[in-house]
Design a protein that fits this description.
By secondary structure, this protein is α/β, with parallel strands linked by helices. It is elongated.
Length: about 180
Amino acid sequence: MRILLIGYGRMGRLVESLSGEYGFEVAGHVDLHNAAHPSGWPAADVAIDFSTSDAVPSNVRALAERRTNVVIGTTGWRAAEPVVAPASLWFPRVVGLAAGSLTPDSTVKALRDRGLSFETSLEGGAPALFIMVAGDDGPELRAGFHNLGVLTRYNRSVLYALAVHDLGSRIQALLPAAD
């Protein structure tokens, strides 16, 4: 399989360095020097976009015109911040909490002021949202943060984002500790 790397920073270089071990061929890469000229991009079976979130829409359009499959790896991720935190209600009946947003539409302080209890090191003004999903034993409550919005930017489902987060957490727990 031939891969086109869009964005040739740390992740693009890492994928290129590992591609041969997994039977992939890097057809080329797109960076600031050739990004504006998609007609000159090398042909590939799939493109992996590690550019910037602002560049993704035009990259996807250009790749769609070429009928090239694309994996979006651009995130806006904040490595030091959480995705979600388990939550509970302080009061049995809370006014002003509504689940359903895909992006943080409130703040840590505002959620706490409305009766949502959760642990986070984020400051009160940090973006946050209230999440309620059906669990095996009834509703599960969580507080979501900026990185949840990153996960739902292109895959518009809170359940998808929670599954990605939970899977990632389980995989991370199995990895050996960093030296």
